[in-house]
Specification:
By secondary structure, the protein is an alpha/beta fold. Helix content is about 40%, strand content about 15%. Bound molecules: pyridoxal-5'-phosphate (PLP).
Length: about 400
């Protein structure tokens, strides 16, 4: 089955949908059983799509979990109230006191913060590594290394990791490889096919796609799924049916939205690259992006998210730019249908294994589904304000 077909059909099993196209929104805590035999049957089959207790899910959740398994190519999928809950569930499921974690230096900020606080308190030691390390990660694996965490492209700075090389080194020592795959979605990087054991999505971003719900998904291979499933259930992770419905709804148009985000973002990025104020455009599809060749080899596309480093300007100039924009709204998150812009200040502190040497302002753009010509015009007038201050 081709990808565009799978995104339409995934998880739409008759048992979940009934006679409707999409599954109904089942609100349930208690599930009632007609007989002791029914109760025993549900208890035995509670991990096989038989309703047991609300926390284990209803056909609404079963449908999304199954869809994600099909799309990611996984043995199982657990749903979480947000992406960061998924990251933490994955880490806490597989790490124990005394273990060592190899964490990519370019990881999403809150994930880094968890390593430096909660994991540290739990006596998990963390080594940050260069995103471009590839197979040389072998040299960093210790006897107690349990997990290698990856995120490709890197958060904000967009370095592409050689995931197959990292997987090869990790699996020689039975080390678990995890990826935060949010930028790619299952459509642009099928991480499990490249050997990754545990794949995390912030479904808040493109899977939902409309900036109105938070959710996380984590998928795992046959080997790691039972432990992830049990721990997530016991820790009480759960995604509410109304939000699951929104993500299921968004998912069906993911493919067409992503194609348009990619196309619009390329146009805006290419325009920015020619601007005199721009030092670098950080976008994996550009040849000067670290890891670009790996991106071409392993990925099936880009999305609407990339960054820009300016060669001049200061906080005041960035403020003048941002405050003048009409279509690029300021706000955290990304992956919705609308364009967003965000500045990253004091960025040097965010990297410890690889230096961040840029001196000019660092700005991240999410290019939405507006006409890119309007977006370019918006940036063009904004850069006049930027220049007036710098
Ligand atoms: C947003 C994001 C998260 C966290 O997702 P939430 O749903 O906001 O908790 C994790 N990783 C990446 C790469 C993200 O962009």
């Amino acid at each position: 089955m081709k990808k565009d077909t799978r995104i339409v059909t995934a998880g739409r099993r008759k048992e979940w949908t009934g006679p409707t196209v999409s599954p109904p929104v089942h609100h349930a805590s208690t599930i009632l059983f007609d007989s002791v035999e029914d109760l025993k049957h549900a208890t035995r089959n509670r991990d096989k799509g038989v309703m047991f207790y609300g926390r284990k899910g209803t056909p609404t959740q079963f449908s999304l979990a199954e869809a994600m398994c099909e799309l990611e190519g996984a043995a199982g999928c657990a749903l979480y109230p947000c992406g960061e809950a998924g990251v933490n569930a994955a880490l806490l499921t597989f790490l124990s006191s005394g273990d060592h974690l190899l964490m990519v230096d370019t990881v999403y900020g809150p994930t880094r913060a968890i390593c430096d606080t909660l994991l540290k308190r739990m006596n998990v030691s963390v080594t940050y590594y260069d995103p471009l390390i590839g197979g040389d990660i072998r040299g960093l694996i210790q006897d107690n290394t349990k997990v290698i965490f990856t995120e490709s492209p890197g958060s904000v700075t967009m370095e592409i990791q050689d995931i197959p090389a990292i997987v090869e080194a990790a699996h020689e020592k039975d080390v678990i490889v995890m990826i935060d795959n949010t930028w790619s979605t299952p459509l642009h990087f099928r991480a499990h096919d490249h050997g990754v054991d545990v794949v995390i999505q912030s479904a808040t971003k493109y899977l939902c796609g409309h900036s109105d719900a938070l959710m996380g998904t984590v998928t795992a291979t046959e080997k790691y799924w039972p432990m992830l499933r049990e721990n997530s259930y016991l820790m009480g992770y759960y995604a509410a049916p109304d939000d699951v419905y929104l993500v299921l709804r968004g998912l069906r148009t993911l493919s067409v939205r992503l194609k348009q985000h990619e196309k619009n973002a390329m146009k805006v990025a290419q325009w920015l690259k020619e601007r005199p104020e721009v030092d670098r455009v950080l976008h994996p599809a550009f040849e000067d992006c670290p890891g670009h060749d790996i991106w071409k080899r392993d990925f099936d596309g880009a999305c609407g998210l990339f960054s820009v480093v300016f060669n001049k300007g200061n906080d005041g100039a960035v403020t003048a730019l941002f405050d003048s924009l009409e279509h690029f709204k300021m706000g955290y998150s990304w992956g919705g249908f609308e364009s967003l812009i965000m500045g990253f200040y004091d960025f040097k502190k965010e990297r410890t294994a690889c230096a961040w040497d840029a001196t000019g302002p660092l700005v991240r753009l999410h290019v939405g589904l507006e006409d890119p010509d309007d977006l370019i015009e918006d940036l063009s007038q904004g850069l006049e304000k930027f220049n007036a201050v710098s």
